[in-house]
Amino acid sequence: GESVGLHLPTLSVQEGDNSIINCAYSNSASDYFIWYKQESGKGPQFIIDIRSNMDKRQGQRVTVLLNKTVKHLSLQIAATQPGDSAVYFCAENIAGGTSYGKLTFGQGTILTVHP
Amino acid sequence: NAGVMQNPRHLVRRRGQEARLRCSPMKGHSHVYWYRQLPEEGLKFMVYLQKENIIDESGMPKERFSAEFPKEGPSILRIQQVVRGDSAAYFCASSPRGESDIQYFGAGTRLSVL
Predict the structure, then answer these.
(1) Which residues of A touch B98 (CB under 8 A)?
(2) Using one digit for the tens of pLDDT, what is the confidence trace for A17-70?
(3) Which of A83, B96, B106, B110 has a CA between 20 and 30 Å from the CA of residue B14?
(4) Number of H-type helices and E-type strands within chain B
């Protein structure tokens, strides 16, 4: 029979607006976080990362904010462009132990930018 | 500097056949990771390897799945006796170091089991 996929959160913005994509993580032992962008039919593309000893990091047009108190991560994209349309995933990594190489991905958010 | 290379991009197998997925990491990277992605879902970790060693295979199904990263050549993810539920996109990533390091992903292999 036909399978029904999960419905990902969606965010629609106008070109030129700022976008904010949110992510909640569950493991308080996570110490490293990455945002990836995935376009249809392609692999995840690295955007920006942040370590748990920081609460903010800026890149080109992107900023990641980390709030360890409430275990929340956000990605801000300035002056969003149509080429930013994609699915955005946050991923977390736990330091130490046997799982230190393993990334745990969030469910993803679909960003659609309208010209 | 070429990125992570995966082949084939698309693979069609009938139930019961074997699937072999290949991954060549970025130059200078000795850590390789395999993930599986179902439609409209995030990536799920399967296995983490260094040259000739499996570091963490906690995400690998206990049967039919195996992975290797030999001293020479690409990393191989092998699925024996495929079933329809194995249909998914399989992504490989590599990093220069292991812990808390950026993982760079390949374009993936899309496996379809008929």
Answers:
(1) 100-101
(2) 999 999 999 888 888 999 999 999 899 999 999 999 999 999 999 999 999 999
(3) B106
(4) 0, 11
- Is residue A89's pLDDT more than 70? yes
Say how far apart CA B72 and CA B28 lie, in whole Å: 13
For residue A70, give how far its alpha carbon lies from the nearest alpha carbon of chain B (Å): 21
Nearest CA among A16, A21, A17, A55 for reference residue A37? A21
Residue of B nearest to A39 (CA): B107
Give the tens place of pLDDT for each residue, B61-109.
999 999 999 999 999 999 999 999 999 999 999 998 866 689 999 999 9
For residues A17 and B109, give the distance between their C-alpha atoms in angstroms, rounded to a whole number.
35
Measured between beta carbons, the chain B residues lying within 8 angstroms of A1 are none
* d(C-alpha A28, C-alpha B43), whole Å: 20
CB atoms within 10 A of CB A22: 14
Report CA-CA distances (Å) from A61 to A18, B74, B89. Answer: 10, 36, 30
Question: Cβ of A24 under 8 Å from any chain B Cβ?
Answer: no
Partner-chain contact A34 B98, CB within 8 Å: no
